[in-house]
Design a protein that fits this description.
The structure holds three protein chains of three kinds. By secondary structure, chain A is mostly helical. Chain A has helices at about 10-35, 40-45, 65-75, 80-85, 90-115. The chains are: A mainly alpha, B mainly alpha, C mainly alpha.
Chain lengths: ~120, ~100, ~500
């Protein structure tokens, strides 16, 4: 861990980041210094001289999206165990297959439970 | 040439501290949940970096499990938040009045 | 293939518990609401099977078997904790039967979650790799977060669950970051590899220091040690009482078990550093836990602070082990922690069983004032509560005294007589708030304007739980030797 030499290949990226930050900061600052500031109601609307607003842009999602998201997260992440097994399928052999079947059976228990409890109903 | 492991440590420390501070100062449970995820992902950076450094896969295996645990945690957290929202229609930590925080 | 079968055989109790939990989840939607108790009996059956399996190995207590290339290990230490956890879980399930009925919470999932939490704890106590210990901790915690919020009609329970979840997730983040740094130091996550790396690399690595502190903080949350205790009173008060009992006893025992194993087997080389750190934590915990408990008016909150204080007493044993390691003092320090938590299980379960079934017009009577005049109305219930309170205060001839005695002896042996004296003073202070409950029960008349007087609602299952708890408290108080020698035999091998 004592190895702290500078990775030279990545220096341009650092340079780029620096330039981007400086450029953004300078242009925003210049605009703020130079422009006149005369705010009024119509100007502060999100769409100046566009269509009038009729509600807040931050709408709340119905709760069932979260339930679907919850189930999605669980079933999505299980792929992390299935992919390595699929890659080494040949060498893992029958034992690997049986283990994966047990794993999927446990997942199915969860799916069965969610189904029976009505978590998959949309209404 | 490769990047020394020390750099990854700094990156992960920054990510971890971002999450830590987020948990401590933010008041919305969803944001707190996101901050916890940041903390967990910082550890994943560590594991992968050290795994590369030692040329041993134990760290990567750990990342698999850490990711799964993080997903399970999100699911349980979301479930608790939904139940809380139904009961109180608020997920702001400051509005938890019944028990002192 | 044969060795694979042997590995599976080693973790057979865990497999049975997980299998039973899955079976419960499959059967739950099929069981009509009036038959949910069958699921409880099913889980008790699984537990009985496990008790038979692990208890059958008691003649070969110290046989060390490891499986899955040293990911899990079953030794005397793991067997001791597993037997304790089976007992606690069984009593919790029995206690839950009448409690859930009274609260109209007949959910079959409840038993599934208890079994899942139990399997997490079993993995924790036999984990020999930071990976398995972390997985076990998370399995236990995730189940407990859900269980704390099972009373979905009560916003208080949901709030408790949310708080427990946020702080628990935060603490597991700290724990995991500590583990990742430890992996960076050692190049492996097996406790043996960590110990070897510490032995060869020396102690002054800053990464190692940070990792140790993060691990201590992560476990500190699970153990409810000051300054990581702030979730405890809220969660204990808000969660359903049977779940509170389970958290206070089983999750604390399992967390202590994993904590001791990590710090003794993995980080034993740093004992000089961590024993000072834990000495500090232990003092703060004793002071704050005992003093804040005095001013509580809700009995579940009071028991929460008392459980914080008891974690402090148990930590004394670990500090003594750290100071005396390599000599005889180390083993007796560790054994005293194991003994303390085993005895603490009986009295705390008993106290929570009384509180859970203490009913005031369909609601739980959980203010200390609700106990006023109980001795006149229900002398037996009042006497049981008296026994548990006396034992929690550590007054002979109860189990609580034996636990404190061995912890203090270990401290004296390790040359920490002053710590034993301080702890003794705080034990005397703690007697004040335990005895206040007794005084309210025996000396005070219920307020006539308060309306309905609370009653203890008896049931066969509750009777069994209370009988077991009170028998444990009194028998181990009078004849502690079998349990003491069991703890001494099954203690972790020290280097």
């Amino acid at each position: 861990m004592g190895n702290t030499e500078v990775p030279v290949n990545y220096l341009p990226i650092l340079l780029f980041i620096g330039i981007a930050i400086v450029f953004g900061a300078v242009s925003l600052l210049a605009g703020w210094l130079v422009r006149p500031s005369r705010p009024y109601r119509a100007k502060l609307n999100p769409y100046e001289s566009g269509s009038p607003l009729f509600s807040d842009a931050r709408v709340q999602f119905p709760m069932r999206y979260y339930i679907i998201a919850m189930l999605f997260v669980i079933f999505d992440i299980e792929v992390i165990f299935i992919i390595p097994w699929a890659v080494r399928f040949q060498s893992l052999g029958l034992l690997g297959l049986v283990e994966m079947l047990v794993f999927i059976a446990i997942l199915l228990v969860g799916l069965w439970y969610a189904w029976k409890k009505g978590a998959l109903e949309w209404d | 040439m490769t990047i020394p492991v020390f750099y990854y440590l700094i990156l992960s420390a920054v990510v971890f501290l971002t999450g830590l501070v987020g948990v401590l100062i933010r008041r919305n449970i969803i944001i707190i949940l996101l901050s916890v995820e940041l903390m967990l992902n910082a550890t994943n950076i560590n594991f992968v970096a050290f795994s590369q450094y030692f040329h041993n896969v134990a760290g990567q295996v750990f990342v698999f499990f850490a990711l799964t645990i993080a997903a399970a945690e999100v699911a349980v957290g979301l479930a608790i938040i939904i139940a809380l929202h139904r009961a109180k229609s608020s997920i702001n930590v400051d509005e938890f009045q019944l028990l002192k925080w | 293939m044969t060795s694979y079968g042997a590995d599976l055989l080693v973790i057979l109790p865990e497999l049975i518990v997980v299998g039973a939990a899955c079976l419960l989840l499959v059967l739950e939607p099929l069981t009509p609401p009036s038959r949910k108790e069958l699921l409880a009996w099913l889980s008790l059956g699984a537990l009985a099977l496990c008790i038979g399996l692990t208890g059958g190995q008691i003649s070969v207590l110290n046989l060390r078997v490891s499986a899955f290339s040293d990911l899990v290990v079953v030794d005397g230490y793991a067997r001791f904790w597993k037997l304790l956890l089976y007992g606690v879980t069984g009593l919790t399930i029995l206690m839950s039967l009448p409690y859930l009925k009274a609260e109209r919470l007949q959910l079959g999932e409840y038993y599934g979650f208890i079994l899942l939490a139990l399997s997490g704890m079993m993995v924790m106590v036999s984990g020999a790799d930071l990976l398995t210990i972390y997985l076990g901790t998370e399995l236990m915690s995730l189940s407990l977060y859900v269980m704390a919020g099972l009373k979905r009609s009560s916003p208080r329970s949901l709030e408790a669950s949310a708080k427990y979840f946020v702080l628990g997730a935060f603490s597991s983040g700290l724990l995991l970051y500590g583990i990742s740094l430890l992996y960076g130091v050692a190049g492996g996550t097996k406790l043996g590899a960590v110990a070897a790396a510490i032995g060869s690399r020396g102690f002054d690595d800053p990464l190692l220091l940070i990792a140790t502190i993060l691990l201590a903080a992560g476990f500190g949350f699970k153990l409810a040690v000051v300054p990581f205790h702030m979730w405890t009173p809220d969660v204990y008060q808000g969660a359903p009482t049977s779940v509170t009992a389970f958290m206070a006893v089983a999750s604390k025992a399992a967390s202590f078990a994993a904590f001791l194993r990590v710090f003794v087997e993995g980080l034993g080389g740093l004992k000089a550093d961590w024993s000072n750190l834990f000495l500090l934590l232990c003092l703060v915990t004793l002071i704050l836990g005992n003093l804040v408990a005095i001013v509580q008016t809700n009995i579940k909150r009071m028991l929460a602070y008392s459980s914080i204080a008891h974690a402090g007493y148990a930590l004394i044993g670990l500090v003594a082990a750290g100071r005396g390691m390599g000599e005889s003092g180390g083993a007796s320090g560790l054994a005293s922690v194991m003994l303390y938590l085993a005895l603490y299980a009986f009295m705390t379960l008993g106290a929570f069983a009384v509180i859970g079934m203490f009913r005031k017009g369909g609601l739980e009577g959980e203010d200390i004032e609700d106990f006023a005049g109980l001795a006149k109305r229900q002398p037996l219930a009042a006497f049981l509560m008296l026994v548990f309170m006396v034992s929690l205060a550590g007054i002979p001839p109860t189990a609580g005294f034996i636990g404190k005695f061995y912890v203090f002896m270990a401290a004296v042996e390790a040359g920490l007589a002053w710590l034993a004296v301080v702890a003794l003073i705080f034990a005397a202070i703690s007697a004040y708030y335990y005895m206040r409950v007794v005084m309210v029960m025996y000396m005070r008349e219920p307020d006539p304007s308060a309306g309905e007087v609370p009653q203890l609602v008896a049931s066969p299952a509750l009777t069994v739980v209370l009988a077991c708890a009170v028998a444990g408290v009194i028998l181990f108080g009078l004849f502690p030797n079998p349990l003491v020698s069991l703890a001494l035999q099954s203690v972790l091998p020290l280097k």
